[in-house]
Amino acid sequence: MLDRIAVDDAVRELRPDFVVLVMTAEGLRNGPSDDDSAGWLAEAARHHANADDPHVEAWREAYRAFGAKPQRTRPSVEALLRRADALPSINKVVDAYNAVSVQYALPIGGEDLDAYVGPARLVRATGEEPFDVIAGGEPAIEHPVAGEVVWRDDTGVTCRRWNWRQCVRTRVTETTENVLFLMETLAPYPLDRLHRAGDDLASRLRAITPDARIQSRLIGER
Fold first, then answer.
1. With contact defined as beta carbons under 8 Å apart, do 1 and 111 qualify?
2. First vs last Cα of the chain: how many Å apart?
3. In this predicted model, what pLDDT tens digit does every residue of 5-55 receive, in sequence order?
4. Interhelix angle for 191-208 vs 35-47, to 10°?
5. What does the pLDDT read at residue 52?
6. Taking the domains of the chain in order of start, what are their residue ranges?
7. Residue spans of the chain under pLDDT 50
8. Are strands 179-185 and 19-26 parallel, antiparallel or unpaired?
9. Under 8 Å CB-to-CB from 43, ≥6 apart: which residues?
């Protein structure tokens, strides 16, 4: 799976400084949030990055570059930082990566690998790709804007506007066992900081499941 994840040339042309650390964690025993995951969120509230971190501004610029308005559809890391003092508990794995995200000012997506059809790839949308959501309490299908940067698989879009909003199909739930994490950076984010964040996340995942099988791969150069 890791070897087949790709970033399209059209995205590279837009932001040649894009680097993503992709990580898979297999055999996880996830479950409802507990005291440990609540503690991670509380620690993140005390030691979160600043909302004016240069990395947040880099993501705002990237959104503007493909036509999105970051003040209306905020990059995921900015949205989390704005509510870092009251991050909601979701489940153990989601709590783990949300805590790492706000402490390192780093967009992190978590996806259920078993819901994927084909490899993940980052592309500029045609506008015809399906994106499954819940609207008004009912399942619905939306579509990205042509030219929008999206993560997708063979079935459709898994995350719109680079890291703004995930689809329903690949959400990490309490019963998810195998997860793909996408830890995304733009310049001037230091690569050593990215690797520290990856190590931190892996440590928390092993606290949830000591025998979890974790692998990673860095895509991109800076």
1. no
2. 23
3. 999 999 999 999 999 999 999 999 999 999 999 999 999 999 898 888 999
4. 160
5. 85
6. 2-219
7. none
8. antiparallel
9. 99, 103
